[in-house]
């Protein structure tokens, strides 16, 4: 099965790049590895027959959001000299918090049941027509609420970006 | 998927790739000729008759030049930058329908490498990745001018991508498909999309100028302010990659404009003279290339006519004019498409 | 004061909507450049074509010899004094017995150099010369790679001794020039026509 091998290959790459995001010293390298991670995830979407989702994932995350990340990091010129010193207490609390998160994750994965797809495999399920129909009928409310959320975020950004009027 | 089909696809890929490179090569020559003619000069005419070997001479010169990698640069990223720019530039040609399908012995051979059902989104994704090469290259050079060029490129690309996407949404509303081959097919005869979407076309072509970093939007590499912008530190063929990618982008965006708005490979009234579908397909390729050449000329014509925008003007145009205009375009398109329903709602 | 009828008074008024759209301006600009596509090209393709020059065009200098082949220059230095660009330098030397066939006068220029990078080809040296020794010719000064090469010495400036290789300086000599030359008493910066009367 070629898709199984592809799945393992992509998963391996995704995990490797995700680890590289955390471990690379240079923030610009981190962002670039994150972009590669997004690409592998888009590959997973293609394997799941969701081409639309894959394309939008690349356009939105790799094409716009990560470019802005990179933009900001380049402008800030972050490097070792400018890195703020963190105290031992801070590091210890961070380790404890992330350890707890790990425990929660492992616990929830262990208790999770494997979901069996109820309906038969439909190759057209990821197409944009079907997605649009579902989004605008079954999931209309969450869809519109999320768009309101984005609007709120936009208005907030404009308010923050505006110079304060005295 | 039979073996012959696979071989056919490989041949098509190689041909499209080669044609893209040759057209880009001769675009550099055409650029110099057009610039010269618009300025009452003759242009390159020494290498070969009318100077048609000039691109070869330029290419050889590029390869022979000394390769300089700045000592303080990030070497791996410095090399990845121009490679990525050229890669993304070459990747876009895949979804463009170059002609209607050939039918030989009952087998259909489409003149399109792959007909993705989300062709427009693919195109968009690849275009939006093009900025990474510029950003990485500009940052890895470890030069202030390069960094400024890279930052300008990224903010410009992001700003104009929004307006471009919105203008395409209006187009998709009228065509009802994201596949480029279907869009081209729908424009059979006189049903060119530019007649349906004149404002959308206008916004799209302005955004195409901005996305290809061509004048009057060539702020990322503007010589008068930033030395060379993001490619200040580049030399030899790596510089050539950056310059070459610009011409490939110009070729592809001309092809996209022709396919989206000017009927692609269709030419009205041609069916009256030619009936054979294979001949029609071949003629279609010729017509598409005529349209592409025309738009490449328009790109050059604009470059050698208009002065460069100031940066605040660029941002004002993108965010305050083009985005509201394209939103208005969507509203008008929707209202016209749903006119009967609206009438019923109002005057029932 | 109005000098030409092409001057335009700048008026800073509010732009109309059509002007603020810029689109008419853009299209008119593009039409202008498009018209230039079909204009006659002004390029002169240099080695094959050359720019048409006036008959009295002044090019590279020559130091003339007289009929028997002796150098006319007597190193008086008047050309160097007249030169506004200070391009001419020379060192004088005394003629030895037996050199009469080489130098016409008792004093001659041992070295005579013109810096072609400084020279402005005004022709004042030619007019200052009392011995008809230096002339500007219709030849072009070639382009060279170093500054030192462009300081021309006697080896380049003095014409060949063979009669058939002499430089013809009458090409530039229109009747007006010839008449001007006949009246050497006129100063350099006075207009010839005024002095004649």
Helix fraction bin of chain C = 10-25%
**SSE order of chain A in H/E notation?**
HHHHHH
Structural class of chain C: alpha+beta
CATH superfamily of the largest domain in chain A: NADH-ubiquinone/plastoquinone oxidoreductase chain 6, subunit NuoJ
SSE string of chain C? HHEHEEHEEHHH
Compute the separation of the termini of chain C in Å: 35 Å
Q: What is the CATH topology assignment of the largest domain in chain A? A: Four Helix Bundle (Hemerythrin (Met), subunit A)
Low-confidence parts of chain A: none
Roughly what fraction of the amino acids of chain A lie in strands? under 5%
Residue fraction in strands of chain C: 5-15%
Largest sheet features of chain C: 3 strands, antiparallel
Number of strands of chain C: 5
End-to-end Cα distance of chain A, whole Å, is 67 Å
CATH architecture of the largest domain in chain A: Up-down Bundle
Mean pLDDT of chain A: 83
CATH class (first level) name of one domain in chain C: Alpha Beta
Summarize the structure.
The complex is a heterotrimer of chains A (166), B (348) and C (197). Chain A has 166 residues and is mainly alpha-helical.
Descriptive tags:
heterotrimer, A: 166 residues, mainly alpha, Four Helix Bundle (Hemerythrin (Met), subunit A), 2 domains, globular, B: 348 residues, 2 strands, 68% helix
